[in-house]
Amino acid sequence: MQKPMPGKRGKPSRRVRLEDLATKCGVSVSTASRALAGGKGVNPDLRAKIIEAAKELNYAVPTSVAGRQVLLVASSVAMVNDIRNQFTFQVLDGINARSRVLGVEIVTRAIASPSELSEVLAEANDSPSIAGCLFLSLDDEELLSLSNAATKPIVLVNGEDPYMRLSSVAPCNRAAARMATQYLMQLGHRRILFLMRPGRQTIEHRLEGWRDAMKGHAGDWMSDYIVEVDDWLPELASQAIQTRIVERGLDFTAILAASDSLAVGATAGLTARNVNVPSDVSIIGMDDLPQSAFFNPPLTTVHIPMRDIGTASLELLLEDLGGVKLPPRRVELACHIIERQSTDGVTAEL
To answer: Fewer Cβ within 10 Å of end Cβ, the chain: N or C?
Structure first.
């Protein structure tokens, strides 16, 4: 008989994960998932072995998930951004790929108002086929407060609940922006603009990360180095950078943009003012969209694990359907810098 893992009163010290089950059975995580969810492509004997191992490890098996639906509720803005910058597309791709493995159907609803969200939640509550909900890019307090009426589990995708009423999955926005700013500082930059579109909590965390890195290197002028635009469109970023140069001159040596689309716009704005990237001004984006490697110059950027955000969100939702009651959790995925040709060092500060 297997000995219990060390912990209080002989209970496991941590909850058994799907990865633990896969390792014990000598299979991949995706094979273990398909076996438990009743998916295709798994030998019956292997499926029986995995199910037996799950029982032995006391792994919570969501036996009622296969064949059911997950309601994906997305803000209309996020669906528009699907076309504009592909971030949403990448997240959805991760969700859909994982759902196919697990045999779960994703049903998408775009909402633009609290009343629309109320109607969607009522639909989910009344439908026995809907197992739970994923909220994509929904972190407005008025919308989140409506989740109190939900009877099915909800996970926020690329967002968070500041009151921790709901579980969420997002990139490590604050740490990622701090890492990007420190990367520029290691190249010798100190006058670093932060280019952003305000509004969403996730972007505010990126602003906080920039501030974390700038502290100790900036004085009262730090707030003057935040440049805001009204949308994620590159042309707005271009206009904002050109306006700043006209009004204040070239008083910066680097730009951290809160998205790749804003970084592209900033590059265009600098080029229009005969400022060279990266010899005059370095630029780093955040996202690492597929096309960022083909910009001119190729964009140094922070890689956001977009597809993994989608995958992890669905996995987190399925945990809540596994029969073990857990408190809401906030999952942040690590990011890293992709070095390309839009950044360079400086030998002297302004």
So the answer is: N
Same domain, yes or no: 314 and 275:
no
Amino acid at 228: E
pTM score of the predicted model: 0.80
CB-hemisphere CA count at 13 Å for 313? 36
Query: How does residue 175 score in pLDDT terms, banded at 50, 70 and 90?
Result: very high
CATH number of the structural domain spanning residue 95: 3.40.50.2300
51: CATH: 1.10.260.40
Residue 193 CA to residue 214 CA, distance in Å, equals: 10
Instruction: Please say whether the beta carbons of 349 and 188 come within 8 A.
Output: yes
Residue 197, domain extent: 173-305
Question: Distance between CA atoms of 181 and 266, rounded to whole angstroms?
Answer: 16
* In a domain? residue 41: yes
Q: Distance (Å, rounded) from C-alpha 305 to C-alpha 310?
A: 9
* Helix or strand run (H / E) with residue 154: strand 154-157
Quote the CA–CA distance of 59 and 117 in Å, as a whole number: 34
Residue 33: closest CA among 45, 19, 44? 19
pLDDT tens per residue, range 90-109: 999 999 998 887 788 999 98
Q: Rounded to whole angstroms, how far apart are CA atoms 174 and 149?
A: 31
- Please tell me the distance from the alpha carbon of residue 293 to that of residue 338, in angstroms, as a whole number: 9
Quote the tokens at residue 256: 């951290």
202 and 164 in a common domain? no
